[in-house]
Structure formats: structure tokens, C-alpha cells
Amino acid sequence: MKQIGFKRAIIVMLVLLFLVGLTFILFEVGQYQVISMLLVIGACLPIYYRYEKRQLNIKEVVLIAILTTTAVLGRFLFYMIPAITPMTAIIIISGICMGAEIGFLVGSLSAVTSNMLFGQGPWTPFQMFSWGLIGLIAGLPWIQSFIGKSYCFLVIYGILAGLFFSFFMDVWTVLSIDRYFSWQRYLALLVTALPYTVSYCVSNAFFSCLLLRSIQNKLQRILIKYDIK
Fold it and tell me: What are the record keywords, sorted (predicted)?
């Protein structure tokens, strides 16, 4: 698969961070909720736009759809168990095997698609951004070379991905209360959610190690058999 270049990856990540950080710089009172949602949507659009400009192979589109469906199914099957889901692991593996751009697409599409079952809302763009960025980073060549070959690094990345997702979504939780951001409330929420965060991090690490080789081998056979580049 075509890999996202180093310079372009840095630019994309800086743009994403800038758009999110802009929320906290420009708006001091009362508008965090709406503006944050718009900025997160805006952060997702450049990658979707660039991907739409490429000449797509229909086989590649089907493969992306299958990976997205698998991730959504993983979230659905474990929805009864709080903070335990293979969905993030499948997104990580998609990035490792298919590259950064497809990792972002699978992550963000999995969020919006699974929420058709679990409920759409203003939190959906934040989930799209979080899971998309997790897939994107996993597919970056200099990250992929570590976590795709070493279970130790894969475990570390799974834990860091869980922390990032939990910490970022807690920002949304604070804003959703009364549209104001409070560091005191945010820190209190982090402490309260600690057991769930730990469970989620362990879940990411466990399922990533459990599923990596199996999915990786199947994807490699599909890429070779159907000549997907």
C-alpha cells in the first residue's frame, strides 16, 4: 500500500493539533462545545479530501469496508463489557498493515458507523478524530516498523492509544456538562474514570497482540492475490 510520506505526515499531525488547540485559544467562555465539534470535523476533512482525489481501486474500497465492518462488529460483540473492546486493536492493525491513510479512514469510519448502533451525537466527531488518529499514527512508516514487528512495542502503543482516547474523550465529557472547560473538573473526571481507562488500555494491548498476526497474514494474502497496491 502507498505510505504517507514523512513530511506530509508531520504536516497533517500539526494541522490536526493546531485545529484542536485553536478551540482553547480563541474561545474563553461559553462556546467550547460547538466550536470544538466543528474544528474536529475540520481536522478530519483534509485526509478524506486527499483520499477522494486518488484514483481508487474498487478492491481497495471493499477491503476498507471489510476492515471497518470487522472493527464495528468487535465493538458490538463486547458492548456488554465496559471498556473492553477489540475495535481499537483492529484499527491499529489496519494502520500497521495498510498504511496511515487507510488507518485513519478505518478508525474514523468505524466510529461513525458503530454509532449507528450505539447512538450518534456531538461526541461522534471526537470519536472519529481519536480513533482515526490512532490508526494514522500506527500506519506511519517509522512507527509501523516498531509495533508491527515487536509485541513489546505493540503493547506500549496499545496502552498509549487507550490513554489518548480516554483523555481526549474526557475533554468532550467536561465540555458537554455546561459548555465550559474546567481543569479541576477534567482532572477529577480522569481520576474517576481511571478503572475504565486501565481496562481499556489493557484491552487494546491484549487484542492487538492476539489478532495482529492472524489479520496481518490474511491481509497479505488478499493484497497479493488481488494485486492491491
Answer: Membrane, Transmembrane, Transmembrane helix
